[in-house]
Amino acid sequence: MKKNMGTADKSIRVALAITVAALYYFDVIEGTLAYVLMAFAIVFLITSFISFCPLYTLLGVNSCKRT
After folding, report:
1. Distance CA 48, CA 30 (A)
2. DSSP letter, residue 41
3. How many CB atoms lie within 10 A of CB 45?
4. What is the pLDDT of residues 3-24, one digit of tens each?
5. Average per-residue pLDDT in the chain?
6. 6-34 in b/e burial notation, b at 16+ Cβ within 10 A?
7. Is pLDDT above 80 for 66?
8. What is the SS3 string spanning the chain?
9. Which pLDDT belongs to residue 67?
């Protein structure tokens, strides 16, 4: 797997995941919406830690700086 996510992209994904987790923790979101958003948050965290997004590959997007 080639990295296709830059630092800014990874930071945004982690921030969104933390926000969703906080909203769930404080009972702002609940029910089915909470589960769907938490699933997206988990995917965001995993993809940001491995610096690879399969959807980016399909769309031809690469936010990683070239060296």
Report:
1. 25
2. H
3. 17
4. 999 999 999 999 999 999 999 9
5. 94
6. eeebbeebeebbeebeebbeeeebeeeee
7. no
8. CCCCCCHHHHHHHHHHHHHHHHHHHCCCCCHHHHHHHHHHHHHHHHHHHHCCCHHHHHHCCCCCCCC
9. 54
